[in-house]
Design goal:
heterodimer; A: D-Maltodextrin-Binding Protein, domain 2; D-Maltodextrin-Binding Protein, domain 2; 2 domains; 10 strands; globular; B: 275 residues; mainly alpha
Amino acid sequence: MRAQSTARRAAASLLLTCICAAALSACGSKQDAVSAPATKPFTVMLDWFPNADHASLYTAIAHGYFSTVGLDVHPVVPTESAEPLKLLAAGKVDMAISYEPQLLLARDEGLKLVSIGALVQRPLTSIIALPSAHVHKVSDLAGKRVGTAGIAYQATELHTALRVAGVNPSSVTESDVGFNLVPAMLSGKVAATLGGYWNYEAIQLQQMHKNPVVIPIDHAGVPTYNELVLVVRAEEARTDGVDLRAFLQALTRGEQQVRANPAAAAALIVKANPSAEEKLQLASIEATLPATLPSEHSNPYGWQEPAAWATFGHWMFTQGLIHSDPNSAGLPPFTNEFLPGQGI
Amino acid sequence: MTPNDGPPRARVGQAITRRIARGLPAALLALALLGAWEAYVDIGSVSPIVLPAPHEVAAEIWNNAGLLSANLELTAQEVGLGVLLALLLGFMLGVLIHLSPLLRRAVYPLAVGSQAVPIALIGVLLVFWWGFGVLPKLFVIVLICFFPVVVTTVDGLASVDPDQLKLLRTLGASRWQALRFGELPAALPAALSGARIALAVGVIGAYIAETSTATSGPYAGLGHQINADINALQTPRAYAAAVVLFVFAIACFYTLALAERVLAPWANRPRGEIR
């Protein structure tokens, strides 16, 4: 009886020793993990579902370019186009991919945000029509129905394009078709759409052998702007410059890798968004490449042209989209200082 | 002697035949609708980008079984957990509203109003509070599903036979005992109907939740997939995901009905039947 209880006690103390040893070794391994080079979590909210426009981002993640510079980049997908800037301003994400017009609107509403680089140099937004609608130039839209994505500044872009073409905007009927731009055209409900991209919807239609007529909005009288920009909080641009510079360096390496191997980038997009179609993504990446680098080749990837920003900001102001001219009030809405080789 | 009496094996056979006969109308109606749909698309009245034919949708289900099941697993978890929370909340709220006239006046209008809250409006707030995971989605599902449970529970509790309550009071039952032995059993059938509605609504609730709150990761549920597919012009695959949701909602509804019959057989007894 006594021997049995001694044995039990011995077993218990052995068990306790094992648990302590395990706990200690766990502490040790935790310490090891802490002493390894730590990467900083960095959340980037995309402008839309992962697509060809994000090729440099996903390539830089997959090749470890961000972790090399100490950033652990996580992309998140929004549900609507105004959401990224709201969550950025609220401090929920570290960076948002958005549109230059959207950023100017957000700043006009008082959000302290600034663009630190352009992902795409010129507008992707286009007027797109199918041959059956007999729309070959903007003036052909007179008296017809145009589908839009329900975004106010895009409607203003349409009005400017119409006026430049000598058409009274009130002669054109606008219908908000949400994100069903292509189905609206295919079903013949609208003669043309504004809001689709020349590097996405236009290519989709081309791949379906529909031979669409595509008029990029900057070829129709709207001043050029950076369609996609990388936006951060103005405060962080002042205090966290090291991370932002590191981010842009890694992204630049990602973009060079996309140029070297677009097919691998397309595969990464499909991995991130199983709904995307690889053939379309590849065609879209290849079509977008000329628009990702600035026209002046001495400027780095991500460059934002000050003169173009000034002209476009003024256009938004004169169209009544924003209350004050971005050129006249406070700090500019963009900065190139974090781009590789700049601001040193 | 009723026509159902007879040797046991014959009775089993009859039961099976009866079950098949009962399922027949639904199957025939589904087939007729599918046939009409197929014919409508095949005669070329509409582009497949706008409406794909059923055979195309079936092929998409077959070809994307992995993707669909990964997303279904996520959506099913959201629906299961969300509806469970909605049932608990709805039932408790229903009982409290029944017990307290003050609470009824205070809470009921707000509960009704909650059903008119546009989820797209609050999606960004939910993400701000709880991040990019499952929590904002659960909140949306609970918000959409708790209401039918509250209404059916409150109505059920009020439907108790007044004579039964009178009898309980005569026997000296406390308020709690009256609730426990009088009102709650009377409310059960109605509350269970509320649960069935909540579960069916929970599936579209999950779609709304997934498409109105931001997410990370390639698999984010069937609702997210449907919107991503629409955007990528993969309409047949969006329909395939919608069919999976459709079947899932039906399966949920009948599973709960079956569970009810097994777990609470008295709840399904037709009214007026003698015990």
